[in-house]
Prior knowledge:
There is one protein chain. By secondary structure, this protein is α/β, with parallel strands linked by helices. The chain has helices spanning 10-19, 24-36, 50-59, 99-102, 139-152, 175-186, 206-214, 230-236, 239-242, 245-259, 278-290, 312-324, 345-354, and strands spanning 3-4, 60-61, 66-72, 78-83, 89-96, 109-112, 116-118, 133-136, 162-165, 198-202, 220-224, 264-269, 293-298, 328-331. Strands 3-4-5-6-9-10-11-12-13-14 form a ten-stranded mixed β-sheet, with helices on both faces. The chain has a two-stranded parallel ribbon with strand order 1-2. It binds S-adenosyl-L-homocysteine and iron/sulfur cluster. Iron/sulfur cluster (SF4) binds next to loops.
Amino acid sequence: MRLDIRSQTREELERQFATWEQPGYRVEQLLQWLYARRAASWDEMTNLPKALRESLRQSYDLQWPTVVRKQGANDATQKFLWRLSDGALIESVLIPASPSLYGEPSDRRTLCVSTQVGCAYGCKFCASGIDGWKRNLEVQEIVNQVLAIEREAKTEERVVNNLVIMGMGEPLANYDNLLKALKILNAPWGGKIGARKITVSTSGLAPQIRRLADDPAQYRLAISLHGATDETRARIMPINKKYPLKELTAACEYYQEKKGRMITLEYILIAGVNDGLDQTRSLAALARRLNAKVNLIPYNTVEGLPWARPEEAAQEAFHAALQAEGAVATLRREKGHDIDAACGQLRLKTERELVGS
Length: 357
Ligand code: SAH
Ligand code: SF4
């Protein structure tokens, strides 16, 4: 299989350029085209000699996703649906900081990226897993989600300065491609996004959490918990049978020890499923033990699924009970609710329209 140019690190490109007897500054020029100017074709790279462009064309692919749909929400959240070179659909969501929501001005512009086409983990509430898993994303398909959005914005300024790996798919099930993509997005010659501005979210793959703990990169980790007892969690997340809370917690503790940084526990509130006050005691105990922050997220309804978000009063009661138990917790006022912002939803809708169902 041919390599894509945006799956290559600077060191790999330097080695290749050395075999072509190209001077070092040519790598620099190429990187400028790839990551500062977000070139979508070889022909744009006008300051590279034609012969070099030809060698590059013959040796590497230069994939670029096409925008199938772009939706904006009232709060300026934008959702992008991309078509990849094999026709697969994936999505990314751009969430600009809103001073009115957070109370203080911030220039944080977060992009939520996908890591797989579909998802194999089949959490009951999630749109991404409904049609199963199709394939892993390649390194460049992860990287290009950031670059293509920046190219759309028609500016050479960085648009994305905060990255959350919370789109479609289970990131840690595509471990090698994800870590290489993040290395490129984090590099000063690449995406220039600080490691601490990158959060990887997982449904709880305990062995890969340990592997990430052993990696020198300082990414943030979020765990999709959504249930604080095995009984509640297993009902909505099949992965809990493979890695029950005891094992997941031990892996989180290991991560915490190795990295010395705070983990986030994501907890979507689903009416009548996991929003009972009986969950708050176990959840708070877990958060205290892991020195973790709890992020409560009201559920986003998914067409065709029976789940609903609790009333606001119930959300607030859950939040208050959690804090009373001594946990650090925030209740998110969901952004992008009106454009199906939760992962997988836009793709699901489009695929269904395409097949006419
Ligand atoms: N597979 C990874 C990352 C992608 S999902 C994981 O599960 O962590 C990103 C987050 O969105 C997860 O916390 C997931 O549980 C949550 N999510 C999925 N469907 C949702 C919905 N309909 N409403 C709100 N959050 C949802
Ligand atoms: Fe997959 Fe995450 Fe959705 Fe579960 S919540 S089905 S792991 S994308």
